[in-house]
Write a structure and sequence with these properties.
Blueprint (H helix, E strand, L loop, with lengths): L2 H4 L3 E4 L3 E3 L10 H14 L5 E5 L6 E5 L1 H10 L3 E6 L4 H13 L6 H12 L6 H8 L3 H9 L5 H8 L5 H8 L3 H12 E8 L4 E9 L2 H12 L48 H21 L4 E5 L8 E2 L4 E3 L9 E5 L8 E5 L23 H31 L6 H14 L1 H12 L4 E2 L7 E2 L1 H10 L5 H9 L15 H9 L4 H44 L8
Parallel strand pairs: 2-4, 3-5, 8-9, 8-11
Antiparallel strand pairs: 1-5, 3-4, 6-7, 10-12, 11-12, 13-14
Helix pairs in contact: 2-3, 4-5, 5-7, 6-7, 10-11, 13-17, 13-18, 13-19, 14-16, 14-17
């Protein structure tokens, strides 16, 4: 038993406590803090904080429990249970870091910084750290790499503007190349046309995908000669530089000098590499002009002069044909120097819907095909409503067996494991509205409404809710194209719920309404055809007789 766990706890006034300046936890979710504060108002603080006396100020320093401390302040609590221990600075820091690393929701960046701080302590090694936190040594090495991110990228990672996949790729780069990624590639904005102002306006912030970032790193940072479109053995392309194959300013000339990011054959002279790229582009355009081919310049930058913006063009296969087909040359980006075929005609009947044009020019579907599609949608809707009703009745019929704290732990875990689509399906069955996300990417959060619903449930309703959470897979709209929902049916049979009766009660009103709408539409369709025929006959009757007719 540790000294901390053997020390009896006591209550201290919240005004006597101070947060530690060495606490590795930097990020606190405001919504989760508010939820914890509400829980503390109802049940109090159940786990004591770990504190020590501090000569730097009057009172006690919190070693572990900063989140509980913040939530308690929000809840207006006057006193908190604590365990007072006698610890030196190094021992306190060790407890803080280890405690933080053992959290379920620890941010990878906090993990990386925590590992770095522990490894700076006397006696700590990678092997000892891996044993302490229950991780493989390879995991420690990979996480430590994240600490090499420059501050703007650390902030973007903490704010979830970039993912762990982005962060791992960027952390492997030198600081100057990380900054280059920020300024030249990673972040962009989506623009659209504003009819009122007659100008292009910002719609949303864009972050390039990890795969796009990987391609950019290989072509723009690592300057992978294997991906270069110019000939590496062409000494005349840039006479002052000569051929790449005989150049010593490349990693392939001495592989032993470079780490994993430089394995292969990469150019070390960025200026020379880009000069060769530009010379190669000039060669391609000159050759096209001599041969009489028109070559469009294709760019990923929106307002680049005399170029076509890439997203506004539909890439075509060489054998694909349309009246507006053009040959284009990529002048920047990962595909720089490659020629492709595109269609950028907004009125092209074949590609208009993909190249930014209106799809309204396409011919309407025949009446039968249109209503056949709508019938499929109706069947899918009935199928979903039947599953929802089955799920609701199963939840209502499960008897109470667990105590509430146990059931809440299981319920929260199942909500977490359900994923975004599963949580959305659950909110659909419970008729709960998702919460609009505040960040610029929009979308809805379905986790908070479910947690709020969980807190409002009576004890006798909790077992049913747990059973319902376990059946979420059969609630999702995209259930791999089948309508068996086997688990829901098994649960319905277990609790003697009439699945066939539910299917009848849900489906019959919707099918009746569908048939009425179809009949009304069929009548209107027949009437429209008669009018068209009548108008055609009238037009034919008014048509003047041809010359020579008696």
């Amino acid at each position: 038993m540790s000294a901390a766990s053997s020390t009896p706890f006591k209550f201290l006034r919240i005004a006597e406590l101070r947060e530690s300046t060495t606490n590795p936890r930097r990020h606190f979710d405001e919504k989760k803090l508010a939820e914890l504060a509400e829980n503390i108002r109802q049940h109090g603080v159940l786990v004591p904080l770990l504190v020590r006396g501090n000569v730097a100020f009057v009172g006690y320093e919190i070693i572990a429990g900063a989140r509980r401390f913040r939530a308690a302040k929000l809840a207006g609590v006057a006193e908190l249970p604590v365990r007072v221990v006698d610890m030196g600075d190094q021992q306190a820091l060790e407890v803080q870091v280890i405690e933080n690393l053992q959290r379920e929701d620890v941010h990878p960046l906090e993990e990386a910084e925590g590992f770095e701080r522990l490894l700076k302590m006397k006696g700590y090694t990678i092997a000892l750290l891996a044993e302490k936190v229950g991780r493989d040594e390879s995991y420690i090495y990979k996480r430590r790499q994240l600490a090499k991110l420059i501050e703007p990228l650390k902030q973007a990672f903490a704010e979830e503007r970039i993912t762990i996949s982005h962060a791992v790729k960027l952390a492997a780069l030198e600081a100057k190349d990380q900054q280059l990624a920020i300024t030249d590639f990673l972040f962009d904005t989506e623009e659209g046309w504003d009819q009122d102002s007659g100008k292009r306006v910002k719609i949303a912030d864009i972050v390039r995908s990890p795969s796009e970032l990987d391609a950019w790193i290989k072509t723009e940072v690592l300057l992978d000669l294997a991906r270069a479109t110019f000939e590496k053995d062409d000494a005349k392309l840039l006479p002052k530089a000569g051929a790449c194959t005989t150049c010593t300013k490349r990693t392939g000339a001495n592989l032993a000098l470079f780490d994993d990011t430089k394995k292969g054959d990469h150019c070390l002279d960025r200026s020379c590499f880009h000069q060769k790229q530009n010379a190669h582009l000039v060669q391609i355009e000159k050759h096209a002009k001599v041969s009489g081919r028109k070559l469009v310049r294709l760019s990923r930058e929106y307002r680049k002069k005399d170029t076509v913006y890439g997203p506004n063009a539909k890439a075509l296969k060489p054998t694909e044909f349309c009246d507006s087909k053009e040959e284009a040359l990529h002048i920047d980006g990962p595909l720089v120097g490659k020629t492709v075929f595109i269609c950028r005609d907004a009125k092209c009947k074949k590609h208009a819907d993909r190249s930014g044009g209106s799809s309204s020019a396409r011919a309407p579907k025949p009446f039968g095909e249109l209503w056949a599609d709508r019938k499929k949608k109706l069947d899918a809707k009935i199928d979903l409503e039947v599953r929802r009703e089955l799920w609701r009745q199963i939840v209502a019929d499960v008897p109470e067996e667990f105590n509430r704290p146990e059931m809440e732990i299981v319920a929260r875990r199942l909500i977490e494991c359900a994923g975004h689509d599963g949580r959305q399906a659950l909110c659909g069955a419970l008729v709960l509205e998702g919460e609009k996300r505040s960040h610029s990417y929009g979308g809805y959060d379905y986790k908070a409404p479910l947690l709020g619903y969980l807190e409002r449930l009576a004890d006798k309703q909790l077992p049913g809710f747990l059973m319902g959470l376990s059946l979420v897979g059969d609630l999702e709209v995209n259930s791999y194209g089948n309508r068996e929902y086997k688990q829901l049916r098994e649960a319905a049979e277990l609790y003697e719920i009439d699945a066939k009766g539910i299917a009848k009660n849900v489906g019959e009103p919707l099918r009746t309404d569908f048939d009425k709408k179809k009949a009304k539409a069929a009548e209107a369709n027949t009437k429209a055809k008669r009018e068209q025929k009548r108008a055609k006959n009238v037009a034919a009757a008014k048509k003047p007789a041809t010359k020579g007719a008696k």
